[in-house]
Design goal:
By secondary structure, chain A is mainly β. Chain A has no helices and eleven strands. In chain A, the strands form two sheets. In chain A, strands 2, 4, 5, 9, 10 and 11 form a six-stranded mixed beta sheet that branches. A five-stranded antiparallel beta sheet of chain A has the order 1-3-8-7-6, with no helix packed on it. Chain A is globular and about 45 Å long. Chain A starts with a strand and ends with a strand. Chain B is an all-beta fold. Chain B is built from no helices and eleven strands. In chain B, strands 2, 4, 5, 6, 9, 10 and 11 form a seven-stranded mixed beta sheet that branches. Chain B has a four-stranded antiparallel beta sheet with strand order 1-3-8-7, with no helix packed on it. Classes of the chains: A mainly beta, B mainly beta. At the A-B interface, strand 4, strand 5, strand 9 and strand 10 of A face strand 5 and strand 10 of B.
Chain lengths: 112, 113
């Protein structure tokens, strides 16, 4: 069964204090790994798609990396506006499956 | 360009009542999805559609029905609401082909009492 585990469940940082969020996955052939940001009371907002081990993508203070077993979302010098829940999801490359398996998310709080 | 819109934003139902959650998109995406998000849990796929007239079950379809008569609209029907259907419901779309990212609507918060 495809599984996604995110850690930690919650993370508190001071403004400017860099850190990483982890997404470990088990999937029968990876079609894509996705990172989303979700603000309270809103729908998930797409951040990155990673397709193969070794791939990296960056956007402002965020950088996502991928290995064969996990993905990291690195946050460099975070600001309070980066506070949100970050979701990781995987799509298996199996028979045209449309199912995304989501992790439970990491709630990030950045204090000024 | 509104993207993905969902109505209503909030709704309270009594056990046994029925309702339809509306989802409309103006991005001309072929693929549309319904998810539910329970507190502390990951999003679960309820139903999806790869185009007008084509729908298929996701991970948790029991108690729900869908239809897709146009590219733009993908309503989710709840028949005989139960407390276990209390959740936040999200509609999402995807362009198709090699563009795999899904774009989500703002959600509908449903409470069944």
């Amino acid at each position: 069964e495809d599984q996604v585990t995110q850690s930690p469940e919650a993370l508190r940082l001071q403004e400017g204090e860099s850190s990483s969020l982890n997404c470990s996955y088990t999937v029968s052939g990876l079609r894509g790994l996705f990172w989303y940001r979700q603000d309270p009371g809103k729908g998930p907002e797409f951040l990155f798609t990673l397709y193969s081990a070794g791939e990296e993508k960056e956007k402002e203070r965020l950088k996502a990396t991928l290995t064969k077993k996990e993905s990291f979302l690195h946050i460099t010098a975070p600001k309070p506006e980066d506070s949100a829940t970050y979701l990781c999801a995987v799509q298996a490359d199996a028979g045209g499956s449309e199912k995304l398996v989501f992790g439970k998310g990491t709630k990030l709080t950045v204090n000024p | 360009n509104a993207g993905v819109t969902q109505t209503p934003k909030f709704r309270i139902l009594k056990i046994g009542q029925s309702m339809t959650l509306q989802c409309t998109q103006d991005m001309n995406h072929n693929y549309m999805y319904w998810y539910r998000q329970d507190p502390g849990m990951g999003l679960k796929l309820i139903y999806y559609s790869v185009g007008a007239g084509i729908t298929d079950k996701g991970e948790v379809p029991n108690g729900y029905n869908v239809s897709r008569s146009t590219t733009e609209d993908f309503p989710l029907r709840l028949e005989l609401a139960a407390p276990s259907q209390t959740s936040v419901y999200f509609c999402a779309t995807r362009r198709g082909g090699s563009y795999n990212e899904q774009f989500f609507g703002p959600g509908t918060r449903l409470t069944v009492l």
